[in-house]
Amino acid sequence: MTVKDRDRLDDHWSRKARSEGYPARSVYKLEEIDLKHRLLKKGMRILDLGASPGSWSLYAADKVAPRGKVLGVDLKPLSGASRPNLSFLARDVLTLAPEELASEGPFDGVVSDLAPPTTGRRDADAARSLELAAGALRLASALLRAGGFFVAKLFEGADAQAFVKGKVQPLFARAVVMRPKAVRKGSVEIFAVGLERLAGGPGPGSEAA
Ligand SMILES: C[S@@+](CC[C@H](N)C(=O)[O-])C[C@H]1O[C@@H](n2cnc3c(N)ncnc32)[C@H](O)[C@@H]1O
Question: 141 CA distance to ligand 1 centroid (A)?
Answer without folding.
Answer: 20
